[in-house]
Each structure stands twice: as structure tokens, then as C-alpha cells.
Amino acid sequence: MLPEARTEGADGLDLRTFFLQPLLPVYHISRNTWFKMETRMIKNVCAPAVVLGERIVIVGGYTRRILAYDPRANKFVKCADMKDRRMHHGAAVMGSKLYVTGGRRLTTDCNIEDSASFDCYDPETDTWTSQGQLPHTLFDHACLTLQCVRHTAGFT
Description:
This protein is mostly beta strands and 156 residues long. It has one helix at 15-18; strands spanning 23-28, 33-38, 49-52, 55-59, 66-70, 75-79, 85-87, 90-94, 97-101, 104-106, 112-114, 117-122, 127-133. The chain starts with 14 loop residues before the first helix and ends in a 23-residue tail after the last strand.
């Protein structure tokens, strides 16, 4: 939720509605500007996005849907759906796979449950597999991939 005190962006965009429309905010590095890219496929709310290979992947958001945006082709591709409709979850990439943690899930009778699920998406096979459960439910969190570098003796 955006704070009421900051509802207008630097370029005059109304941030209260900017993210609620079928628009994707895109930052143009060389022009140092933001613009709205319209797509009818994006209706995801409370969904993380990650860079997976050459694509930007939008994961869930009150839906099971996974969308991958290819910036070179300027095209969205639908990926395999998650098992549950999820929101407020975390996502991170390790190696060539996407991992999704916790969040909240929407049940078939439209109740919201906190989740401890830990799932993996493999883009090569376009499949999801469960990696078990987190130690406790977790939502409204972020995920970060850390790479450890091994140093050998005598390295200067």
C-alpha cells in the first residue's frame, strides 16, 4: 500500500492508480524516465518480479499465473501456473531456477490462508515442484540470493 503523503510521482503520475491499471511501470535507463507500458495480461497485485535468464518474471499476485516478459521481443509469455493462487509471497532466482516462498494463498472457498510453502519453477521444463515447507508461515517478505565466493590459501 502506498502512503497517502506520497501519492504523486516526480513526473506527476498518480501513484494510487498507477499500479492498479493493466499497465507495467518501465524505467528507461538512457532517458532516465518512467513510462507506462500497457498490457492486458498484467493484473497481478502483491506479486514479486525477478529476472530469470533474459526475462522479467512476474509471479502470482492473487492468481496462479506466471508471466515472463522478454524485453528484446517486447512480448509476454505465459508460463506454467503455480499450484495455488498466491500473493504477498517472496521470490528469488538461484542458478537457473525460480524459488517461491510463503505468502498467502486463496483457497477454493475464497478464504485467505498464510502459507509456509516452498516451491521451485524450472523454466527449461516449464514445471513446478514442491521443495517442502518453511519452518513457519511467512508473508509480506522479500527474498535475496547470496553468492558465496570460496577463497583458496595463498590467494592475494
